Amino acid sequence: xxxxxxxxxxxxxxxxxxxxxxxxxxxxxxxxxxxxxxxxxxxxxxxxxxxxxxxxxxxxxxxxxxxxxxxxxxxxxxxxxxxxxxxxxxxxxxxxxxxxxxxxxxxxxxxxxxxxxxxxxxxxxxxxxxxxxxxxxxxxxxxxxxxxxxxxxxxxxxxxxxxxxxxxxxxxxxxxxxxxxxxxxxxxxxxxxxxxxxxxxxxxxxxxxxxxxxxxxxxxxxxxxxxxxxxxxxxxxxxxxxxxxxxxxxxxxxxxxxxxxxxxxxxxxxxxxxxxxxxxxxxxxxxxxxxxxxxxxxxxxxxxxxxxxxxxxxxxxxxxxxxxxxxxxxxxxxxxxxxxxxxxxxxxxxxxx
Length: 353
Fold this sequence. Notes:
By secondary structure, the chain is an alpha/beta fold. Helices cover about 40% and strands about 20% of the residues. The protein has a seven-stranded parallel sheet with strand order 8-9-7-6-12-13-14, with helices on both faces.
């Protein structure tokens, strides 16, 4: 495609200038406008028709969340939220994902070019992914939630574990997926690449809407039925050690595929330990992290599932896994939970016998 045409919305003149400078100088990106508030942004969206918008959460007048909700209702388009690394900012980022933002990006703690240049590669990659991503309207989002079935009340576990990886668009996917898990669900481990400063708030919000207990991954902790573990640190990889009686380890190793925690490492260690006793799930996301690990899982005899293109916000990661033969079955988001749980039911073995 031609350059991604970006509209920047931020009440700070300095921030608008800095974001414009780093994005406009990036290959494949063109900044077509910068607005100081929702009124200016609304007019520019109509006149300039941007491919993607970066939107500050905290603005005077109509704040970023309210403007995002209006945008996704009236003229849906890909939006990347810029949020402060505070508890308030983290909760707002979760709400933004649920309203339809592609992803959130932590605002730099200083307005120096050095700080912005350090963050430039991640922000540019996110904007480019968002520009080609799938936009789900508010109407469709509400329809999906209305169709969500109740979690099973008669689940019997056969001893298998579930490993899930996702990045761009994955936060909203988890809010759709995890409430379908029963209270006594299989032990589930997740690497959701969503700035470490936001992950604690993500766990808190997911736990409040999920029948099972959603908790942070802790080094050395044994996997338990009824618990869903999410990696919280960008300083360590989450891996699975030992079988049977598997436990989690947090490894402060170098990034893999430019990512830490790496989905590839989570999947690969599940392949080495659990083998056919694991279910691997690749959700929406950008890049190739997770593809090789999912292939290792499939080779080891595990069932592997990828989110399909129609329901993925960004299909790049599932597509990369599919391209190398890592995916056994590709499913829409609303069918993934039931497929994974079916493979973890005790009676599934009896049926096959």
